[in-house]
Amino acid sequence: MSIPKGQTISVKVIDLVNVSGVPNKSTYAPPVEGVEIFPASPSLCFLLEHNSGRRLLFDLGVAFNSSKLGEKLQKDLANFGWKVEVKEDLAVFLDKNGVPPDSIEAKSNSFASHTHWDHKGDISTFPPSTDLIVGPNTVAKFVHGDGNGPYGGITLDDMQGRTLREVKCDIKVGPFPAMDYFGDGSLYILDSPGHDHGHICALARTTSNPDTFVLFGGDAAHHGSELRPTKHLPMPKSIVPNPQTGLMHPPLCPGDWFRDTNQKRGLDPEGPLYRPSFAIASMEHTLQTIEKIQEMDGNESVLCLLAHDPSVRHKSMPLFPESLNDWKSKGLRKFLDWSWVGDVWNELERNLAMPKST
Ligand SMILES: [Zn+2]
């Protein structure tokens, strides 16, 4: 994996949203008997603080004022059985915690990674000095084209007095076309199309000597079960600590069940449990983007965090105001990489008579 040398940037994770009641089949395929409901999940925001004092956000979560979601979306969510809880708007949370919204230079992702309701937050709560940063070819689609719909988009309100910027990804970082945002290697915006038009991920350098990174995956995938295992990161024979209990013993050993389940569903027995069940822009590009993230995920110096991955709620995960930068020396991946297996196992045990693992 080729990543140029560079500076570091501070990363803080903010979890203000809880989405529950989401049926698995609405997001993943092919189905697994007994796994019906996706575990309650966040819609994460990341505060990035550069050495120069410049601040950025990657993703804004969900608007606290639910009327901002629009009538159709609110009705659809109720009909689907989704429950969306928002503690407060991100701008309000930051202001209360010593980060005035006018100190934020730009927000990225959703307006680029995608403009969906569960990522674009309520931009009107930020001052016009906060730019919108959008992914490649997004302005043509959303501002001058037909990209806006009930699930998101860039509205006139979003743009009111605000600068809209589109990233240009003209260098290569790992397998991704990328942009070196600060020009010093601390933050790369990654062109990662598929889930929605102009979807972007980002790669922040969390330490140097040795280099470590956090990859913000947005909605390139939604759960660890779409990313792992792979040839880059095979499933261990036994998962320790046990992702159901957090205890070192007994370990969880999903081996035979996992391989059989994948084989019966026509999937690679050594590959991930699920594929995404939908893509708004392109399924082909979505799968290509997932393969690229899997390649990065195979590098033990990269921590991949998806916007809705419930694994980030593990008790060892440092949340704002703590910094995430020393994730590697804390051994965080040991707790997060396979925690998705615990989500699946809990659901199976709830719905089927599953043998207890030994
Ligand atoms: Zn989302």
Automatic annotation (TrEMBL):
Q: What is this protein called?
A: Metallo-beta-lactamase domain-containing protein
Q: Which family does it belong to?
A: Belongs to the metallo-beta-lactamase superfamily.
Q: Keywords in UniProt for this one?
A: Hydrolase, Metal-binding, Zinc
A single GO molecular function, which one? metal ion binding
Keyword set includes Zinc: yes
What InterPro entries would the database entry show? Answer: MBL_superfamily_lactonases, RibonucZ/Hydroxyglut_hydro
Protein origin, superkingdom: Eukaryota
